[in-house]
Input
Amino acid sequence: MLMKNRSLVSINDYSRIEIQQILDLAEEFEKDPNQPLLRQYVIASLFFEPSTRTRLSFETAINRLGGRVVGFSESGSTSVSKGETLKDTILMVSNYSDLIVMRHPLEGSAQYASEVSSVPIVNAGDGAHQHPTQTLLDLYSIRKTQGKLEGLNICIVGDLKYGRTVHSLLIAMSHFKPVFHFIAPEELKIPKEYKIFLDQKGIEYHEHRELAPNIRNADIVYMTRVQRERFSDPLEYEKVKNVYILRNQMLENTKDNMRILHPLPRVNEIHQDVDSNPKAYYFTQALNGVYTRMAILVKILGIK
Ligand code: CP
Output
């Protein structure tokens, strides 16, 4: 099926070849980021949950492509606060725009929106479920720093239970035969359904508790924030919030070309003394989101 006019709800929607096509196009946009390909298009940006990078990098991508943006960053200022349903909101906005980028706290909301919308939906994060555009920029960053996606040793650290970027990342990377090392406290271990998925795909993975000794052979260390907003009991969050803090001294015996990624925002999980280490890549990773999201929009609108 063509990518054109297809919603991007889950990273499972894209094949290995489609992922590579997006990354190739993102590379073109990085070389030449001002191309007025969306001059005729209005894109809706609906953020029912807070965001800095995803919303602003999408909006930067749209602006760089010469398109126009409508939308909101806070649903309290919309008729949702009067009781309007998600269905009615999407029906309205799909009449006004050519594509909808949506972040929503409910898992499955992007799928539901795609079923009622007359224009493609791009999932910018639905609860603890998935964040597929983050994953595409993560893969772009991994390929750019490692020169390949195949056969890498990837450590994923922190909140593997609620972290939607983790869930999307491991599905996408499973096309490329990685070895995963999951480093998480007992309470935030990778959910069983993802382990079943990896077993079925024949992907090697290991689970660890300690951080420093388990990153020595890593090509990528993917740090994540403990997702405070997904905890029903604040005391449970307090127990695990600072379990892992990556510090500069821990990087001494790691591979020269290892790179540290983080979808951001960070809280305490990467000490600021890491920021000036050449292995810290997270701020450039966020910049790569602009090029990757330009490629996603253009592909879905069928322009390139
Ligand atoms: N990575 C990410 O989704 O960041 P924001 O929540 O700031 O959009």
Strands lie at 42-47, 68-72, 99-104, 121-126, 153-157, 179-183, 204-208, 220-223, 259-261.
